[in-house]
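Whiteboard transcription, Tuesday session. T.W. wrote the structure tokens on the left side:
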């Protein structure tokens, strides 16, 4: 997928996640919709990685990674 975002942008990523269902009707079985916001720090054909928190100048912090095939949209909220 091609998105109009660049490394360092603050982005909103909408994606669909797997769920498990037990003792449910087939009509109720669906993917879970999710949204994450963070600084785009890495992306390639397989994954997108966001930094969602910083701890220090050494690069440590909180990160979120999602397979690109699960992403339904990604848009820049603030450009770098």
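and on the right, the sequence the group agreed on:
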């Amino acid at each position: 997928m091609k998105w109009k975002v660049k490394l360092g942008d603050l982005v909103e990523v909408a994606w669909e996640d797997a769920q498990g269902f037990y003792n449910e009707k087939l009509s109720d079985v669906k993917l879970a919709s999710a949204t994450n916001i963070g600084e785009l720090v890495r992306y390639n054909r397989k994954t997108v990685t966001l930094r969602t928190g910083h701890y220090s100048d050494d690069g440590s912090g909180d990160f979120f990674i999602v397979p690109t095939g699960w992403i339904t949209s990604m848009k820049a909220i603030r450009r770098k």
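Someone added at the bottom: The chain has one domain: 10-19+30-78.
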